Amino acid sequence: GPRAAAVRLALAMSALRAARAIDAAAKLAHAMDAELSATYVQDEDLLRAAALPCSFEIGSLASGVRPFGLPETERALKREAQEVERAIATIAKQLGLGWTFEVIRGRAIDWPFDRAAADDITVIGKAGIELQFPQMAPTHGRIASPNNAPILAIIDSTPGAVERLDRILRDLGGSAPVAMWTPEQANGQRLDIQALGQDSPRVTRRVTNDEPFSAASVARVMRTLRPGIVIIARSLAEKIRAELPVVMRLVPGTMIFAP
């Protein structure tokens, strides 16, 4: 099938710890001979909170707890965006990627739906990754899910779904086990996991869940598997778009939205 026209990377606040998402997006773009289109998203909810008269900062933008306002928050986010851009520029140069970078205000979770073309792959990184940018050099091999946690692949039942998953897994590399879930198989259709290539991380588990596909069912599967990386078909993600911010909180690392 055709390769993705672009790999889109959206990073929200605390992206300094989202090195794995940057690495994954860069590897996908390199394997697909695609452009890496990166966006640093200044969280609009955070900025609204910073504008309140009694706001305090806890965590990634400062040590301890201290009052903060909108000017301080904007400066901190600007500094972080600059660090993100430098990291992306470094890995793009090492891999010979064409790339773009922009800073906007909004929500990273909207990117797979509002900014991606039909054949694009979107990678969203979030806080919580332990790697830092000095460790961002390409691995020239395989990406492991955090602590070798499983990869959860939630795919639809359209023709070519397994092949698209196979391509993403091969391009990412890695030895983490893969759990595959096809929550909406048409007419009881069984997808042949043997179609996955020999070089892919091996699918070791088929997820079965008889309840209707919903954000709640996704959350339950995630709590059971505790995946480090989640690959989800964009058509399925669209069905639970309103609840995706809540679902994202259960993902310790990276979400990949596939065509």
What's the short version?
By secondary structure, the protein is an alpha/beta fold.
Task: Describe the structure in your own words.
The protein is α/β, with parallel strands linked by helices. It contains eight helices and eleven strands. It has helices at 19-32, 44-50, 70-95, 111-114, 161-172, 215-225, 234-239, 244-248; strands spanning 6-11, 35-43, 56-58, 65-67, 99-106, 121-125, 151-154, 178-181, 203-206, 229-233, 254-258. The strands form two sheets. A nine-stranded mixed beta sheet has the order 5-2-1-6-11-10-7-8-9. A two-stranded antiparallel sheet has the order 3-4. Helix 1 packs parallel to helix 3 and helix 2 (44-50) runs antiparallel to helix 3 (70-95). It is globular. The termini are close together. Residues 58-63 and 127-144 have low confidence and may be disordered.
Annotation keywords:
single chain, alpha/beta, 8 helices, two-stranded antiparallel sheet, globular, nine-stranded mixed beta sheet
User: Please, what is the average pLDDT?
Assistant: 76
Q: What order do the helices and strands follow?
A: EHEHEEHEHEEHEEHEHHE
Structural class: alpha/beta
Distance between the termini: 12 Å
Helix content: 25-40%
Largest sheet features: 9 strands, mixed
Secondary structure tally: strands: 11
So what's the overall shape?
A: globular
Cα gyration radius (Å) = 18 Å
Total count of helical runs of at least 4 residues: 8
